[in-house]
Design a protein that fits this description.
The complex is a heterodimer. Chain A is mostly beta strands. Chain A is 8% helix and 40% strand. In chain A, strands 1-2-3-5-4 form a five-stranded mixed beta barrel. Chain A starts with a strand and ends with a strand. The chains are: A mainly beta, B mainly beta.
């Protein structure tokens, strides 16, 4: 799992089956120092509470498809937690 | 499996139900020379503490198996605390 910063929202009216009601957010992956690294990704919000500006952790690939209910919907990144604090 | 070093922990109140009651550790991934090369956030299963060298499973299906589950949005888990590494 990786840290990320939510930087925006994505609105899509016409979506694949199973994605109704799923919120999509733009997430910028972060490194250990919480600096941006790589390109932003579009992630499904599996905690239903994440919003722009928040520090989150997310999973990719099959794990992302596991995060939503119903499972195995077509997503490749999913936010699975909102970070309160990283103690390093 | 990968070698890592626990460098901190991640506190999250709002998360996917899978992570309820599970400890999230911030781990540097180490190369064979012990140099940090990236990081991952892993679920602890062995009671690892900050500063310890650990074995990390960084593969979803294997990680789920450790928890006796076939589903769950997890990819990385700490599965051992390393006492020593000897290379020829």
């Amino acid at each position: 799992m990786q840290l990320g910063r939510v930087t925006g929202t994505v609105v899509a009216t016409i979506k694949s089956e199973g994605l109704e009601g799923v919120k999509f957010l733009v997430v910028q992956p972060l490194n250990k120092q919480q600096e941006p690294v790589g390109r932003p990704v579009i992630a499904a919000d599996a905690v239903y509470m994440a919003g722009p500006g928040e520090l989150v952790y997310f999973v990719a690939s099959r794990e992302a498809a596991e995060a939503l209910d119903p499972r195995f919907v077509p997503v490749d990144h999913a936010i699975v937690g909102i970070v309160d604090q990283v103690m390093i | 499996m990968k070698i890592g070093r626990v460098s901190g922990n991640v506190v999250s109140t709002i998360n996917h139900p899978f992570f309820d009651g599970r400890a999230l550790m911030f781990c540097d991934i180490l190369d064979v020379n012990g140099e940090p090369n990236g990081y991952t956030i892993a679920v602890d299963t062995v009671g690892a503490g900050v500063g310890e060298a650990v074995l990390i499973i960084d593969e979803g299906t294997s990680a789920r198996q450790i928890f006796g589950l076939t589903t769950g949005p997890i990819r990385a888990a700490i599965v051992g605390i390393i006492d020593s590494i000897d290379t020829v």
